[in-house]
Specification:
The chain has 119 residues and is an alpha+beta fold. The protein has one domain (27-114). The chain has three helices and five strands; from the N terminus they run βββααββα. The two termini are 21 Å apart.
C-alpha cells in the first residue's frame, strides 16, 4: 500500500501515505525488529520530521509474521490518528523486541536488506 508514492529501491512492506518514505540516499535512524529465535521480522527506518518506513518480508509461515502485522496495524492506526512519526516510532519500539536504534547510511541498510531477502 504505497499510495502512488515515488518508487523505492525495493518494495516497502508498509508505508502509509501519512509518513513520507525516507530519502534512501541519506542517513536515517534504523532498528532491526526481531523475535526470540533471532529471526528478523524487519527494519524500522525513520528520518525527521515524519519520514517512516517498515521493511519486512516475514510471511505467514514465519514466527515473526504476527509482529509484522502488529507493526503494520500500529502504522495504519498512527496514520489515521495523525500521530507524528517520532511518537509512532516510540510506540512501536515499546511493543517489540529490537536492536538499539542507530544512525545509518541507508544505502548500506538497503544492501543488507536485499542480501537477507536473497535478492
Amino acid at each position: 500500500m504505497l499510495h502512488d508514492r515515488a518508487s523505492e529501491p525495493f518494495e516497502l512492506s508498509y508505508a502509509p501515505k501519512r509518513y513520507p518514505a525516507p530519502d534512501w540516499e541519506a542517513l536515517g535512524t534504523v532498528t532491526r525488529i526481531w523475535v526470540p529465535d533471532d529471526e528478523t521480522v524487519g527494519w524500522l527506518v525513520r528520518q525527521d520530521p515524519d519520514r517512516l518506513a517498515f521493511l519486512s518480508d516475514a510471511g505467514p509461515d514465519k514466527l515473526g509474521y504476527v509482529i509484522r502485522e502488529l507493526v503494520r496495524e500500529l502504522m495504519a492506526q498512527g496514520a489515521a490518528r495523525g500521530t507524528p512519526a517520532a511518537d509512532l516510532w516510540t510506540e512501536i519500539l515499546g511493543r517489540t523486541l529490537h536492536t538499539t536504534p542507530t544512525e545509518e547510511f541507508l544505502p548500506a541498510i538497503v544492501a543488507d536488506v536485499r542480501k537477507e531477502w536473497g535478492n
